[in-house]
Known about the structure:
It is a single chain. By secondary structure, the chain is of the alpha+beta class. Helices cover 31% and strands 29% of the residues. The protein has nine helices and 15 strands. The strands form three sheets. The protein has a seven-stranded mixed β-sheet with strand order 4-5-6-10-9-8-7, sandwiched between helices. It has a five-stranded antiparallel β-sheet with strand order 14-13-12-11-15, with no helix packed on it. The longest helix has 22 residues, at 244-265. The mean pLDDT is 95. It binds biotinyl-5-AMP.
Amino acid sequence: MKKPAPRETILSLFNQAADGFVSGAQISAELGVSRTAVWKHIRSLRQAGYKIEAIPSRGYQLVQSPDILVPEAILAGLDCRRIGSRVCCFDVADSTNLQACRFGDDGESEGLVVIADQQRSGKGRMGRRWESPAGVNLYASILLRPAILPFDAPQLTFLSAVAVCRAILTVTGLKATVKWPNDVLLNGKKVAGLLNEMSAETDRVHYVVLGIGVNLNMQEDQFPGDLRYPATSLAIAKEGPVSRLDFTRALLQEIDAWYQVFLQQGSGPVLDAWVRLCDMDGKAVLVDCNELEIEGVMTGLADDGALLVRTATGKMERVYAGDVRPA
Ligand code: BT5
């Protein structure tokens, strides 16, 4: 792992400080720099919006952090094996997925996280648009290089969905559910969308990009009127704002843990966790597969991630692409 940036180290020290105070001497020893250099780093954190007070004989105290997504704040004290090997934050991106694919094509290593405060052309599936206003949500893409067959890569969408649900629970206490193939719902409304993209040859994956869009603080009037599925945000569901930084850190931690499970044990545990989070399982559903509509009872997932639907005639349909809703 590369050496953390000075501002990241200082924010980590604040995170770890039991009484909230970190002395100048401590920072200077940790960074191996002079007290004047420490003061300059503190000043630059203040300029970035951190409210840091200096109390004589006690040290510095971080009183308030701005809810901005910057690498040093995201990475401070984050305990991940692979995810977050590098974090790139943009004010505006066309799409974080496109940006992560560019990095992937340039040979960037696994674990890169690309985040944008706003997306101009946020992507959904099949050329659809992902609404991505500035300052309120999380738009993230994570670059992975798993040694798997291209055929198995779509299963990583389930990993993102499980990680998003668990991060939502950690940060808000709310229980989210999943909807096949790539949605996370709160109170039956879409709160997050997932879009994986991949670069591969027939029998080798070059990289996979996990694209994750989570509505954190988006308000009702920011959703367009013509959504395919009712939508919500964590702030609407929780009736109060959510820290984008806390959510992002919780999410990266979960992705890292589940990716480790995926690499060690395959997709089985991930699919099992996903099915446990799916409240449509065992219930009547309608699946819109473009030309075809399938009606039946959702009966879990096949080993390859296909949706299993038992129709009225008793036939088990395997669905590989489509949109599901309760019947
Ligand atoms: C998705 O597609 O749900 C995948 C969305 C992935 C977005 C992330 S953001 C970070 C990364 N970078 C990207 O460019 N993309 C990924 P799909 O199932 O096709 O749903 C798209 C549909 O959801 C749209 O046609 C709208 O009806 C609706 N929609 C658009 N924006 C939404 C939002 N913010 N919240 C809820 N629904 C939305």
